[in-house]
Design a protein that fits this description.
Shape of chain A: globular
Strand content of chain B: under 5%
Number of strands of chain B: 0
CATH architecture of the largest domain in chain A: Orthogonal Bundle
Number of helices of chain A: 11
Order of helices and strands of chain B: HHHHHHHHHHHH
CATH architecture of the largest domain in chain B: Orthogonal Bundle
Oligomer: heterodimer
Structural class of chain B: mainly alpha
Largest interface: A-B, 20 and 23 residues
CATH topology of the largest domain in chain B: Cytochrome Bc1 Complex, Chain D, domain 2
Number of helices of chain B: 12
Order of helices and strands of chain A: HHHHHHHHHHH
Helix content of chain B: 40-55%
Chain lengths: 218, 238
Amino acid sequence: MIETGKVSAQILRPRRAGSGNNATLILALAFLASALLPLAVRAEDPPNPVCTACHNEDGNSVVPDYPKIAGLDVAYFTKQIADFKKFKRVSEIMGPIATQIADSEIELLAAYYSKQKRISGVVTDQNLAAKGLMIYAEGIVDNAVPACGGCHGEKGEGANNFPRLAGQHASYTNTQLLNFKNQVRNNDARKVMRAIAMRMTEQDMQAVSEYITSLKGE
Amino acid sequence: MRALLFFALALLPASAVLADTPAMVNQGIGSKGYVWNRLTPERAEAVRKKGDVALGQEAYRGCRGCHKQDAFGRVDGIYPRLTGQYASVIIKQLTDIRAGLRLNPKMEPFISFDAITVDEIADIAAFLSQATTIKENGKGPGDQLALGESVYVQKGCVKCHGSRGEGNGEKLYPALAAQHYSYLLREMELIKTMARGNSHPDMVTSLREVSPNDMEAMADFLSRLPDRRQSVAKAPGK
């Protein structure tokens, strides 16, 4: 099993955001992963090699399209897996994998990843990040977008069902915001993220995502 | 005709921002049978509950993005301060909005029935009445304070809002002292044109006789009064 994890990780690592066209490979991997999963999930560290293949051993994925899950709060982590399972949060990749995780194992995985330290990302466009800082800290008053820090914490550390955003890959954050706006992701507690994303332009989303990747969460 | 005008005005703030937020049905002032202090079932429920401060602090997280962590809002008045307001008034305003009696499309998604429960309204009100922050609020230019005070007295605003702008929690009259200037001015305009939704009818009548300049003077005067918790003056029905 562990071998498989390593191999898939190697296949996946060279992939960069925007390289497109890897859908088949990803789907194949997801399928493979979900087939392996029932055997693979165990309580001991390091965690399930299947997760490791995409999210890395410490939960700090290096592939921009796979979210960093290190440091996610147990409450949020558990809710997302439950939502993936019920296809309330729809993902071609995580959906089938989640259906294979036994309820008893979710708790262990959540506990493990919540204890991992989130590693922040690298800002490539300083101007964009500066605009993002304004949005993150002050919101966009003209469009009644509340400051992200109000709910997600000033440093992006999150709490309970308000996820940690700090250090996340900019492309993942950006995709989630677009998904909320287009109602592709509609599992958000209290419907607040959809309302917020609908008030944002694509430029706003890019800027705030670029800033968020720099946050350390402390 | 009046209803039509009101409807058009009601849509104004909504269209600017929130094309996607379904407009709430307005049943505020100007609509048939409006009673400013009607006890809606939800308000009755919220008032009956004993709010929990700790739970209120948690629920208030969803408000911090606009009203700020210390509930002091923004000095430019875009978001009002909530500290120093009576719990009874906070509950009335929130439940009025949810009942379609007061319009606030900017805030609507965050206090909708999806977003918070009636219990949380009671909790948040309890938490806010404990919040102690008092700092520099947004003020006007300060050049017509005497005029502001005399208009405020002449137009009978004192009857309800008190000589120190302290309001009256039992009677549901908001405290106005030390609120941000631009917010006070905006509310007066919204109340005057009946675009706010909820309002005491006598206040609309009085405000209709007030010129824009006198309104600015009053807002400035009020913004410079000390927070009601600081003015030792006999505040009725704290």
